[in-house]
Every structure is written in structure tokens, then in C-alpha cells.
Amino acid sequence: MADASVEIVEGCRLPVLRKNQENEDEWPLAEILSVRDAPGRKLYYVHYVDFNKRLDEWVTPDRLDIKKLQFPKKEAKTPTKNGLPGSRPSSPDRDVRKSLDLNVQSASAPSRGKTLPTPKRKAESVSLASQVSAAMSVPSLPSSAEASQASVYPAVREAFSTKSREDEQLTSITTNGTTRRILPSQPGRKRKNCGTDEVRTEDSQDSSDGIPSAPRMTGSLVSDRSHDDIVTRMKNIDCIELGRHRLKPWYFSPYPQELTSLPILYLCEFCLKFLKSLKCLQRHLTKCNLRHPPGNEIYRKGTISYFEIDGRKNKTYSQNLCLLAKCFLDHKTLYYDTDPFLFYVMTEYDSKGFHIVGYFSKEKESTEDYNVACILTLPPYQRRGYGKLLIEFSYELSKVEGKTGTPEKPLSDLGLLSYRSYWSQTILEILMDLKSDNGERPQITINEISEITSVKKEDVISTLQYLNLINYYKGQYILTLSEDIVEGHERAMQKRHLRIDPKCLHFTPKDWSKRGKW
Description:
By secondary structure, the protein is of the alpha+beta class. The protein contains 8 helices and 25 strands. It has helices at residues 94-108, 278-287, 315-326, 386-401, 413-433, 446-453, 457-466, 483-495; strands at 13-15, 18-19, 25-26, 29-38, 41-48, 57-59, 150-154, 172-175, 178-181, 189-192, 199-202, 240-242, 245-247, 265-267, 274-275, 296-301, 304-310, 341-350, 353-363, 370-372, 374-377, 406-407, 443-444, 470-473, 476-481. The strands form 8 sheets. The chain has a 5-stranded antiparallel sheet, with helices on both faces. A 4-stranded antiparallel sheet has the order 1-4-5-6, with no helix packed on it. Strands 23-7-25-24 form a 4-stranded mixed sheet. The chain is globular, with a radius of gyration of 26 Å. It starts with 12 loop residues before the first strand and ends in a 23-residue tail after the last helix.
């Protein structure tokens, strides 16, 4: 449907034909990110607006609806002040933003020993999520120091009036005719972003130009989105052959430039070395002695094994693993300094060796109680319970370490779904196993749930809220389990066949605070 007389340039928006999940035609709005010449025609790389980037693709002109073409808007020139170019007029919303940022800064520091406010006695659910900014006024759960306990008993959820879930969303303010969201406070180092008054919080110790000034000893793998450009927004690898699987990457990954033009990138499934041709791979396999990931096997049950890999001792493997993972993770960045991280690779065994299924990484020392930095199940193994098995294994390690843990934020859309499902099933499993004493309702504290599961307290609270279980009634917090919740949980547990057996785990935590052990 493209008209040859109209030149379509980068930044244009128009409807593009694609197939939905039901294999039906639809015309979502898409943005043109790049144009390239192919023999006899042009190809357009499009990003579907309001869709995940993994759906981005090259399309032919016949899939474009040229009648609804929207050209990119010209950027407004910077207004001048006192005749001097480059000077910026004062913005009426800047003071509001400053005050918001100051609130976020002051509220992000945890207050120890402080008594949390008690909500009104009106029957309502507690609006407290793990990522809600402390600058917002929300009722909170009392701490265990106040000896508050939540009673658990089956009841119809409609018996209590509950707040709309919209109350849990981040609030926004309107200034100067534009709506601005109040961003959640994130722990980490704060610094000012050049050219604005907004304060950015970052965990990574990067310099302002995006290049690490020195090897990082700690920190997160959260991607700094301010350095995104048109190159990193586009997939650069068409296909990856890994063992008996061929994978279509979802996102950009910084493989060497000369490999990005190949129709297929070949990887050794044991050492993850990347090669440019099948002949090179076959020659490599005659010399590669690995039949499992390097490192220590710390868990085995049936055909499932876990290997612990030190990012310092096995640097090449760790870097290759990060390159592969970046093809399917958009919110994480890639560091060639893998020294501060441990990698736990899950494998499936057969007669040919241990085949990688997925992995998660974690910092050797985390100041934020993160027990996962990156987590990934490779696409051929998704929707088979392996993702939840990786999450369960990360919490089993936290139990051995005697700590509570939480995944590093932000989570991807699929990661959030997996974690929310795992938290819900784990907490409901505990609540349904509670026994009543002397005919009274069983009681349990949030801290006790956290200690049993090693799930961080904030994640327990947000999960109870997400399930709409927690209510404030007659001066105390109660957890109401409706029949729908119980039946849904039982159906989900029947499908969950893969579980971690703590008896098969052979793991001794190390004290990484001593640099000599690095």
C-alpha cells in the first residue's frame, strides 16, 4: 500500500500490517526507525507503538498504510533570552519538579526504629507496594516490633469493602498543562542529569558519557536508558543456532560488528563461543572438551542440574553468557567486567551432555539485598515451569545464606509475571498450611512469612495487595482467603511439577567481603 511518490523517512508513523496471536490481520500504529535498500525495493524497520520492542521487525512497503502517514514533528528551537542563544527561559514547573525530587531524596533513606502510621479504622485494604515512592502518603502495615499479627481465615472476599486497585498506581500531577508522573524512589547513588534539574538514581558507577570510568566492584546491571540510540534500539542478529535450537533474538546485543551481517550466528552450546559459520563450529567442537558449563555443580535431581560460575574465574564464559542473554533482556545492560557477579546456570542432561536451559546472576556483595541481577529462561524452554524453578532456586540459596532477597528492578514484563506468580503461590502455600489453635483463627506476621520464604518483606506486602487479601477490620489486619483464591491456587499447584529439593543442594556460602576470595 506504499506510494512510491511519497518518501518515508525515519521518525514517520503509520499503520503497519501484522498478524496477532489469533493469526488475524491488524494495523497497529508503528514508527519507522530505519530504512535500508534491498535488491529491487526498500525495507523499513518498524517499532509498533505501545508494543514490546521484541516485536520490532523489518517490513516490506506493501505492509505500510501510506494514507495515514504521519511525518515527524520538527523540534522546536531553543528560545533565546536577552538575545543570547542557548539561554533557556525559566520553566514554571521546574520548582514543582525540584520539590518532588527533594521529597523523593529525603524519603528514600530508610528510617530505623520509626513507628509506621496506623491507618483509619475504616475497613479498607492497605495500599502499600514495594515500589511506591515514600514521598506519597499511603497507609502502612505496622512492623513486627509492634506485635501486630494478621489473622488468616477463609471468607468471601466481598465481605469487606476494598479500595480500588487504581489507588495502588503511582500518582501524577499536572503542571503547565502537562501531566507528570511521580517516579518511585529507587535505592542507589543519586546524581544530577546534565541539562535538567531532575535527579537520576543509579546503582552503576558509570561516568557521565556512559563509559565505565573504572572496573566496578559492585553495582547493578540495570540499563541506563539515557544513552539509547538508534543502533541499540534495533535487533542486530537475525538468528542464533545453539545446539539443536535456532533462536530469533528479541533485542540488540553487542556482538562483534562483522558477525551482525551473517544470516545465522553459531554458538557452541557448552562454552558459548560464537562462530561465523557451521564449518567453524564443527572444527571448534573437535577441540572443545566441555560438556557442561564450567564451575561447580551444586545441585542435581533427575536431569536438572545447576552450576555455580564465578565471573572472575570463568570470565570468557561469563561474557559470552551475557552476550547471549542480552538478546532476550531489554532492561539490563552488558558489562565486560563480570568479576563482581556469580552466575547460576540451569542445565538439562542427556547422553550428549548438559544443555543450557536458563540462568540467573547475582552480585557477590549486594548492599540492596538483591539475590538476582539478571534472570532468563531461553525461549525454547519457556512456558514449561523452568522460570519458576530458577526463581525458587535463587530463594533456596538465600535461605542457606540466612538472608531475605529480592530481584533487581526493573523487571521485564515476563519477569514480573513469573515473580508475581511465584510469590503468590509461595505465600498462599504457607497461609493454607496454617493450623488453628484451640479453635481460634491462625495468626502470622509479615516478618514470619518473610523469614520462612526468604522473600523480602516489601514483596510479601505487595503480593498480598495484588491478591487483594489484606484488610483492616475492627482494629486489626486480617487476610481473607476466598474460595476463588483457594481453588485457583490448588489448580496452579497441580500443574507445577518441577520443584527444588533442598536435600539435593550442596552449597556453602562464601564471605565475599574479603577481597582475597575474589
